[in-house]
């Protein structure tokens, strides 16, 4: 065996992206430090302009994390204590922190079998007069059913806040995700498709009034300096993050194309295994995560781990079963069969821009030999 064949295939390796931007970022950082532009500042303003243009939206408001983005969007949407908001049961908990901070009540919906995104037929069953908004999650890098979602929201008069933390650059009928609802929220956590050198987030909107409120909320509730119009937060993006993200954004489409090529290889090489593979159902997929579903998932995971292939779980404990929500929502024991399927059987294979063909082969070979072994 060659040296390389023994090396672990990491679940994600961010050093490859860093190496590509290093020579541009370092001299620019030097300038940022000389200017002491640490909190928002000119690099953040430039990044906001760049990302707004990239996504085709009027306003981009840079904040300190994806969770902060969703929190200020919740407030800007006018969601108040006791209001109900439809959300998928199958997502990262960051989707709902903003609701919980504001005293709003998440109403969990089951998800689609094929995509893991919010099931709007289930949402239809759970809606009542107390529901004011819906937060669809474009999970794993693929769109929720946007056409059905927007028709549903219109019919019930709901505000739509899109959680695009995993799907920057993904499109639906030619338009960037995040531009369909009232606001779209992004995360630049390092492991996301566009990741900073630390925490970061963004809200986008075409609504001038909401943009002004969001800008105020992220900076101590200021309307102008020293005047605090509303209770605000310190949710500013670091200048350093904006600088790094600006350089990385120029390469995002290239990195996304690499993710799509890896996914195509996995799909071709694993098609005849018993796995359920990701399906493109709503038009696009930027493969933040490549999540397969397997019977006896934990056995497969242990086998891959033994073979030096790291995997992830997204997400093994559904939101309606999280301990912190025990007093807020009444768990419907068997009300989420599809969420349970994703939680119990989902397994995320290694997926990152810059992943080598040899690493992809290692993953494919390991998965295939697991099933060849179990068939005997
Ligand atoms: C990452 C993520 C968030 C939260 O973003 P942070 O930057 O980690 O606060 C919210 N929703 C989803 C679906 C995410 O994947």
UniProtKB/TrEMBL annotation:
**Which SUPFAM superfamilies does the entry mention?**
PLP-dependent transferases
User: DNA damage: is it a keyword of this entry?
Assistant: no
A UniProt-annotated Pfam family: DegT_DnrJ_EryC1
- N6-(pyridoxal phosphate)lysine PTM positions read 192
Q: Which UniProt keywords apply?
A: Aminotransferase, Pyridoxal phosphate, Transferase
Indicate the family of this protein.
Belongs to the DegT/DnrJ/EryC1 family.
Q: Active site at which residues?
A: 192
The source's domain of life comes to: Bacteria
CDD domains linked = AHBA_syn (cd00616)
Spell out the molecular function terms from Gene Ontology: pyridoxal phosphate binding; transaminase activity
GO BP terms: namely: polysaccharide biosynthetic process
Descriptive protein name: DegT/DnrJ/EryC1/StrS family aminotransferase
Identify the InterPro entries for this entry: DegT/StrS_aminotransferase, PyrdxlP-dep_Trfase, PyrdxlP-dep_Trfase_major, PyrdxlP-dep_Trfase_small
